[in-house]
Design brief:
The chain is an alpha/beta fold and 509 residues long. It contains 16 helices and 16 strands. The strands form three sheets. The protein has an eight-stranded mixed beta sheet with strand order 8-12-11-13-14-10-15-16, sandwiched between helices. A six-stranded antiparallel β-barrel has the order 1-2-5-4-3-6. Helix 7 runs parallel beside helix 8 and helix 14 crosses helix 16. The protein is elongated.
Length: 509
Amino acid sequence: MSNVIEQIEQQIAKLSSKAIKKNTGIIRSAADGVAKIEGLSEVMYNEMVQLPGGTVGIALNLEEDSIGCVVLGDVSAVKEGDKVTTTGKLLSVPVGKALLDRVVDSIGRPIDGKGPIEATEAYPVEKVAPGIMARKSVNQPLFTGIMAIDSMVPIGRGQRELIIGNSGTGKTTICIDTIINQARINKTGLASGNKDFRPVYSIYVAIGQKQSNIVRTIAALEAASALEFTIIVAAPAADNPANQYLAPYSGAAMGEWFMENGMDALIVYDDLSKHAVAYRQISLILKRPSGREAYPGDVFYLHSRLLERAARLDGKGSLTALPVIETLAGDVSAYIPTNVISITDGQIFLETDLFNQGIRPAVSVGLSVSRVGSSAQIKATKQVSGKLKSELAQFRELAAFAQFGSDLDAKAQATLERGARIVELFKQPQLNPIPIEVQVSILWAPQRNLFDSIEVKNIAAAATSLRNFLTTRKDSLLTEIRTKAALSSEIEADLKTAIDEWKVTFPAR
């Protein structure tokens, strides 16, 4: 009996009677993924609040007598009268290399069935973008593997290049090709043993897409062995608007970890049109005042604070952003497209007419621009692509004029002939990025009139045949172009010999 009393006395001695302060509120209404909560007097903007059943919410509207909170996760578990408490934490997501080769949701939880993610660090979803003094100029190329882009609209590490066009013009394909090309370069560079080589890690953020499309994208990356260098952040159309709104910011936080730790990363936002629609939906439910096209007044800030986080930092790494915007009937002057065009460092515009003509990728030369320009190109590319854009623009102009059936002089005919060859040369099958040294070799040939004996209809086949010839039989020449990154007179002589040798093997003229 005495033992029992002693145990009771010990338990009483351990008892703590100090008060625990909790900020608690009550859900007054819950609908469409948004809860109105009363009583949370000390909540912060963007703070996580703990809802019943382990569900988390984010405080977005701080009003005088209530707060508007978007629910992340299962909305059906939230009902009127439930108690809610503050957490004192801003929303964070896991970051690091542990996320590579994984598919996660908008707050970093694995959804690929491969078990938990062993991440040791977390970054806040919302973060202030680096200032002007912390940034470096963009002068290191990021090769997409797409000839039309690498030669005429080059992208540099730390750049923000918008990909814009109608539905079904190949915007996602360009992004996937670029990710696959980074994985291919990573494997080549890491295998070479070059200590100065810096791989590019990719983050693909799928916003508001059909789940079947996301699965198809993952399968394409897996088939190309690119998933090991890639993080997929998925917020499909079936997710609630809050998840679609948060997904790109979570992806940016994951990319920032690579940048802050001296590595290079590429992030694709596919697409920001659906992101703006999800934010509009949240804002209208929260009864925020609506403006043009029913979007809230801060919709420009929605994307500017996201895209400004992409940069090349002094003494650190870089984060390159490829935002995607879908236009309706090619209208680039609509509200969201003009907003994002003004934030980014250039755009790649994809035309429906070109796509339907079989010119793929359907890059419009007249409307596409890179504000970084040739500073994001290696010298070899500059040597072979200097006049390509102007020649192609002249061709498009003349081709439109020639449709009227007027007689053209010899010079105009020559321009049309040359332009048609360039158009055919730039045709490239999807999921098949071309190494930069092969691109330089293929583009060098028409510059030296070595394709003039080949009929225009056979140019695309000739380019494919030449690529196969060079990669299988002239590997040492390609390695020399890649390592020197410039065309010397000796390399040009070797290239001429190689192309003459290839012409004998190419039957179609």
